[in-house]
Amino acid sequence: MLISIILIFVFILTALFYYNAVKPMNYWKKRGVVQSDPVWLLGDQWKQVFGLESIVDMFTRLYNLSPNARYCGIYQFTTPALMIRDTKLLKLITVKDFDHFMNHKPLIPDGADPLWNKNIFALKDQRWKSIRPILTPSFTSSKMKSMFIFMSDCAQNFVNYFLKERGNGDVIDVCMKDISSRFSNDVIASTTFGLQVDSFKDPDNEFYYRCKDITNFATPWRIIKMLGFATVPRLFKFFDVKFFDSESRQFFINIVKNSIKMRKEHDVDRQDMLHLLLEAKKEVEQKKKQGLDIEEITDEDITAHAMINFFAGFESISTLMTFMSYELAIHPDIQNRLREEIDEGFQQCNGKLTYEVLMKMPYLEMVISETLRKWPNFPEAHRVCTKKYVIEPEYPDENPLVIEEGTAILLPVFPIQRDPKYFPDPDRFDPERFSEENKNARDFYCYMPFGLGPRNCIGARFANLEAKVYFAYVLHSFEIVPTAKTVIPVKLSNQNFNVHAEDGINVGLKPLYT
């Protein structure tokens, strides 16, 4: 009897393992789609899990499985996803047939963490369609002009710190990831909450500590959470596992709550992101009073939307500034040409840079665009099929491919932006790729650092402006140079889920005036 029970138990476990870990690995093969040789349970991410390759190397390897294929099948753990390699298909999925692919693939299960599930990136279907138009006006050119003032103050503080506190005319050796994240932290505090934070003079301030905490995906517990949400989401949801840690979560909830209270009590009118979100909330409340059927915005929604600024502003923008500093350090000719444009802009403004002059610096725009091409913040982007879709054959060896509802679609940001088919000699840093002539001659859908179509990054203008402000002030006062600690070429980390240099990037800041 006992033996029978054991055999039944073993059979059940074997069956569960087969149907949940083995069988899913043949999903694309059964549909005639090119795929790699995924490992049970871990899929195509097994090398990354064991630290054998970076996430960038993983997606590049999969992208190159079949150079002539329009798409290929991959497995993110046990979840099959279709990687799109063809720009015509990218256009169909992200623009023309967008109604079939409106949503992002959820990072964590719905309802598992309201502070994540309610932000604009995670919203789905009608809720996203209702909220996006409400938030979009917060990122217009006129609104960015008001943000420019706060960003400029942070940039001036940065320059003054290194000139006065750290600079004696010698080259100042800095870890770019550290100082760019501190700068981004101060910008977020100012532009989002109206808080004055100086992460250089006060390096251990709590705001910076909490920002680092919520954007750090490399801690053991955060990695376990990511793996758990990816492989056993129902189990993690059952045990009420939150994506954000409780202390950091409460810290930002309190900041938003106290800021809203203070502004109401003292009638504060500061044109920052929180102000814009509160104005959007007021507008929605007015429309609801008029009888319009419109989604309301709660204080929790505002907190969630403010939180996404940390991911976009703290991690992503600091990554852009880190890699751009590296490229400028090893390409002094490009840096000198850019500095000439920046210095000329300061002269036009009599030393006080204006928003209008900054936005008319074409070479600065080109250098930022080329940095985002070569070093995009994220190696890929996702969509989810929301209703059945058929990819019609284009070549004789293709058959119609039915995409079932719920299937993940992967946009290969890093691999396609390094594909020599679209960008010849792709490892070379060449801002001229983004001259007006070259941009117009290139396929629009091979460049997507901020995504494509209606679901692109809402904060792209904010990120672009912050990077422009930072480099305008830095290059006006410093030369960025390689040091003995600068690793050339950059080696990417195998421990992160996005594009990170191993051990950061070290460069030198050489004061131009002493």
Model description:
The strands form three sheets. This protein has a four-stranded mixed β-sheet. Strands 3-9-8 form a three-stranded antiparallel β-sheet. Strands 5-6 form a two-stranded antiparallel sheet. The longest helix is centred in the middle third of the chain and has 32 residues, at 299-330. By secondary structure, it is α+β, with helices and mostly antiparallel strands. It has helices at residues 2-22, 46-49, 55-63, 87-96, 114-117, 125-135, 141-165, 176-193, 206-215, 220-231, 233-238, 246-266, 273-289, 299-330, 332-348, 355-358, 362-374, 413-417, 436-441, 460-477, and strands at 71-76, 79-84, 172-175, 381-384, 389-391, 401-403, 408-411, 478-481, 506-511. Helix 15 (332-348) packs across helix 20. It is built from 20 helices and nine strands. The protein has one domain (22-511): Cytochrome P450 (Cytochrome p450).
Give a short overview.
The protein has 20 helices and nine strands. With 514 residues, the chain is α+β, with helices and mostly antiparallel strands.
CATH superfamily: Cytochrome P450
Secondary structure class reads alpha+beta
Helix proportion of residues, in percent?
Answer: 40-55%
The CATH topology:
Cytochrome p450
Q: Helix-strand pattern, N to C?
A: HHHEEHHHHEHHHHHHHHHHEEEEHHHEE
Number of strands: 9
Helix count, per DSSP?
20
- Model regions low in confidence, pLDDT < 50 over at least 5 residues: none
Gyration radius from CA atoms, angstroms: 24 Å
Return the domain count. Answer: 1
**Assembly form of the protein:** single chain
Q: Which second-level CATH architecture applies?
A: Orthogonal Bundle
The share of residues in extended strands comes to: 5-15%
What is the spatial order of strands in the main beta sheet? 1-2-7-4
